[in-house]
Design brief:
This protein has helices at 10-18, 29-59, 64-89, 91-112, 116-152, 160-164, 183-237, 246-307, 312-352, 360-374, 389-415; strands at residues 380-381, 385-386. The chain has 416 residues and is mainly α. Strands 1-2 form a two-stranded antiparallel ribbon.
């Protein structure tokens, strides 16, 4: 029984199902209607919060702390909702990333043998732990942002009316379309804001873990492919110095035939892997560019907010926000670089195969795979932002530049 031990993207898939991205295709019509209603509630609440925050951005121009805080969260909400809508609309294509890994694993088993499932199972073990800790770090940051207004801007001498209608009293700075007079109204708005913040954090982290998991899993398939190629190298090594007797010559020819058969399965495996990487690039292209635009905007204002924060608690919440956002950008580029190096590793393994002692059929297959490995497929955002270590360094430099410009503008305004 094949592939039962290989758990592909299940944790991230279930997380995205819980927030309305993926739905069950075998559910009843009433279940689907209830799920659509759940999605409608999410869309209504999140859209309302974003619109009210946009109004607040224009209303809080005199308060730089409030403005920076509003821009931080609004850009995260806007980009997160775009990603949620995009994945919800194309949920079928994204869900197939999970099922395609099973087909790739089946082809890898044809080339590697019966131990392929155990190899993949052991390889995938760390990814679930990484995903859980990544989600946990995001929830910790969301918690600090939610409790920050309670500790930074306490009620003090304010009346209930002043406290309830002050945007600083809430986790998300948004304009109030009506006045609040009762404690239950304050709690209701506070809970809505907290829900919006936690939901958008889950969107970001859930999509991230799905994206990272897909790349990590296909990287495991490349490792499986490399192991199969190394096995072929060992087969060929046995026939490097054939004897002149007919018996040994026949044995060597059998080894060559066996190697060709296995290598042909490796070529099919390699083609499926490259198609899968191309599919990832096409599906996540718009999401990656939205990540970059959100990161450069939100982090610039978050750094500015850190320099003018009113209290230690607010500074801690901003630092948590900055840390998770920078970590998010780093992981994007880390996995982009990861899949580049994995693709290049295939060419290195192929070069070590003793091709000069192979027959023409094997050399042709090796040449085909080498040509496919010379130029790796990059994960990009509309071909404008390539995920790699080099891009992350450029991102940090640009972030620092924009922050210094914003800070100088603020100093000039204060001195004017």
């Amino acid at each position: 029984m094949q592939n039962n031990n290989c758990d592909y993207l299940s944790f991230a898939y279930n997380t995205l199902r819980s927030i309305g991205v993926f739905s069950s295709s075998d559910s009843t019509i009433w279940t689907r209607r209830a799920f659509d209603f759940y999605r409608a509630i999410i869309l209504t609440v999140m859209t309302s919060v974003m619109v009210l925050m946009m109004v607040q951005m224009f209303a809080a121009t005199a308060d730089l702390t409030m403005l920076a805080r509003t821009i931080d969260i609004w850009t995260m909400l806007f980009s997160g909702m775009y990603k949620w809508l995009y994945m919800t609309v194309f949920n079928g294509r994204f869900a197939r990333l999970k099922s395609k890994l099973t087909a790739i694993q089946a082809q890898g088993s044809a080339a590697h043998g019966s131990t392929a499932d155990a190899f993949t199972f052991n390889y995938l073990k760390p990814m679930r732990n990484i995903s859980i800790w990544y989600m946990f770090s995001g929830m910790v940051a969301a918690f600090f942002i939610i409790v920050s207004p309670l500790l930074t801007y306490p009620k003090g001498d304010q009346s209930d009316f002043q406290y309830y209608n002050n945007p600083k009293s809430y986790p998300v700075s948004s304009w109030m379309p009506f006045t609040l007079n009762e404690n239950w109204m304050f709690l209701l708005v506070f809970v809505c804001h907290s829900f919006a913040l936690v939901f958008i954090v889950m969107v970001y982290l859930g999509i991230d873990t799905y994206f990272f998991g897909a790349i990590y899993a296909v990287g495991g398939q490349i490792e499986l492919l490399n192991t199969s190629l190394n096995n072929n190298e060992n087969i060929l090594a046995q026939s490097e110095y054939p004897s002149c007797t007919n018996r040994i010559s026949i044995y060597t020819e059998k080894q060559q035939t066996r190697c060709y058969s296995t290598l042909r399965e490796c070529v099919k495996h390699h083609i499926l892997i490259l198609d899968y990487i191309t599919n990832i690039r096409e599906l996540f292209s718009t999401l990656i560019i939205m990540d970059y635009l959100h990161g450069i905007t939100s982090l610039t204002f978050a750094l500015f907010q850190l320099t003018i924060s009113a209290s230690v608690i607010e500074s801690i919440s901003v630092i948590c926000f900055i840390s998770v956002s920078v970590w998010h950008q780093y992981l994007n580029n880390f996995f982009g670089e990861f899949i580049i190096q994995k693709q290049l590793s295939v060419g290195t393994v192929l070069y070590n195969v003793p091709w000069w002692r192979c027959d023409k059929r094997i050399r042709q297959l090796l040449m085909l795979m080498i040509l496919r490995s010379i130029k790796p497929t990059f994960i990009t955002g509309f071909y404008m932002y390539k995920l790699s270590y080099e891009s992350f360094i450029s991102f940090v430099k640009a972030l620092y530049t924009y922050y210094m410009v914003l800070r100088r503008v603020n100093v000039k305004d204060e001195n004017a």
